Amino acid sequence: MDNWDLYTRLIHEYEADLSYDGIDGDRLAKRLHAISEIGLTEEGGSYRLGFSHEERQTKDLVIGWMKEAGLAITEDGAGNVFGRLEGQDSSLPCILSGSHVDSVPNGGHFDGLLGVLSALEVVEAWKAKGYRPQRPFEVVIFSDEEGARFNNGLTGSRAMVDDIDMDVEEELVDDNGLPFGQALEAVGLTKDGFANEGRRLEEIASFVEVHIEQGKTLEKQNLPVGIVSGIAGPSWLEIEFHGTAGHAGNTPMTERQDALVAAGEFVRQVHDIPGGVSNSAVATVGKLQVYPNGSNVIPGKVKLIVDIRDIYENTRDEVVRLVIDEAQNIATNLGVTCSYQQTLKVAPVPIPEEAKNQLRQAMEKHNITAHELPSGAGHDAMIVGHHLPVAMLFVKSKDGISHNPAEWSSLNDCVQGVHVLKSYVESIDQV
């Protein structure tokens, strides 16, 4: 793309007095720009799919910066990269921080990258100030978080915590017909190495991830960063309404068993259910199939997916129960039948109160009003959080846009996020 210059856009309105205590906004902007040039699309977006050469090239670029900062590099069989700074007592479990560098097709330039570069910027700040933490600190780049290539995702973090079913992984094929195993080999990995991955989790004390919000809450509050209160766990219900297909012209309205009428009524009611249970619960019908799907045929069957999420498992499961009840009641009232099955159930990850309190203190140290907000999207922290203590910081997103070339977080907000991360890590580093 001609005249691409993310650096100039970032630095244009940057307040230079935010660069202090070893943290350098100019350096962060240059690194965001350098990565943005890898897989740059004609629309000004990013194209770095998991286990692609573009993801590999980005990892190698960041590895170079890690080495310059004095980090020791290791890479596991899933392609996860760890840059380690030894602590004063290297026998202690480390603090881990980072995210991912892969993107969706034609994605943005902050999702994932900001978490990796924020953690690295903390190391750079310590180096500039001659500070060494008590515990080891590791910057991590997780592989294939987005899952856009093989329609699964969070691959690297799942591999690290040994939550991979190789029978499933080996069946994955990308849109070009390339099997998962061959995609690994193309970037220097192997199926055997991937299958045998998994880290001794006792080596890690906690994980903290910085990520753009992908929503409008912080923008509405005019806050640069916010504390993630919990990461929602999705539950998917596949629901089918069964009626009777018939001729659209010859079947009287009073004699119809229209599956789509039932489904339509159901979709409308689903919208109102979460709010009566929890202010952080959501439910979405985003996929719906009509059979036989003829313009002059009364629908005899409708199959749909309800995506239900909350940061608390008990309220999420209560929404699931109410959604099922509503489907059955509507089917009965409209003279059709319904069936359902739960096709996905992932436990939410509430952030521990102690971690939120320490994040709150870190924000107050930098005169930022502490505001909590849930994460409806899954992140590497969700996977790690099922096994280890985790914390998350969100950085303000313009218009809440993400997975899009228009994705934007100002350099001012990004740098304030680094300051909060640094203060938080130093606070939990105490032994």
| CA(first)-CA(last) distance | 50 Å
* CATH homology-level superfamily of the largest domain: Zn peptidases
**Content of β-strand:** 15-25%
Please identify, by name, the CATH architecture of the largest domain: 3-Layer(aba) Sandwich
User: What is the CATH topology descriptor of the largest domain?
Assistant: Aminopeptidase
What's the structural domain tally? Answer: 2
Largest sheet: 9 strands, mixed
In total, the number of strands is 15
Provide the gyration radius in Å.
24 Å
What's the shape?
A: globular
Question: Could you explain the architecture of this structure?
Answer:
- Its cofactor is Zn(2+).
- Its EC number is 3.5.3.9.
- It is an enzyme of class 3 (hydrolase).
- InterPro entries: Amidase_Cbmase, Bact_exopeptidase_dim_dom, Peptidase_M20, Peptidase_M20_dimer.
- Helix 10 runs antiparallel to helix 11 and helix 12 crosses helix 14.
- 45% of the residues are buried.
- This protein is 34% helix and 22% strand.
- The protein starts with 5 loop residues before the first helix and ends with a helix.
- Strands 1, 2, 3, 4, 5, 6, 13, 14 and 15 form a 9-stranded mixed beta sheet that branches. Strands 9-11-7-12 form a 4-stranded antiparallel beta sheet.
